[in-house]
Specification:
Keywords: Membrane, Transmembrane, Transmembrane helix. The protein is mainly alpha-helical. It has two helices and no strands.
């Protein structure tokens, strides 16, 4: 049983943050010297992929919720027509 639903967009944002951290940590340690503008494509690409993954997951959840709601075609609990409060 899952405690919460899976959010792929948040996972991709976290991985993007870890990639940027590794990029700067490698530069700080002197392992490599990336160009100053290297953060822009990594950040934009990661956030764009996260947005796309979030949109796809939203569409899948919406479609599955719509199909579940159309399955209940049985009669309502009270079909007498009188809904007056007594």
């Amino acid at each position: 049983m899952l405690l919460h639903e899976f959010r792929p967009g948040r996972l991709l944002v976290g991985l993007t943050a870890l990639a940027l951290t590794a990029l700067y940590a490698g530069d700080l340690a002197g392992a490599w010297t990336p160009p100053w503008y290297a953060v822009v494509p990594v950040l934009c690409g990661g956030l764009g992929a996260a947005a796309l993954a979030t949109w796809v997951a939203y569409r899948i959840r919406r479609r599955s919720a719509r199909s579940r709601s159309s399955e209940s075609t049985e009669a309502p609990a009270s079909s007498s027509g009188s809904q007056a409060i007594r």
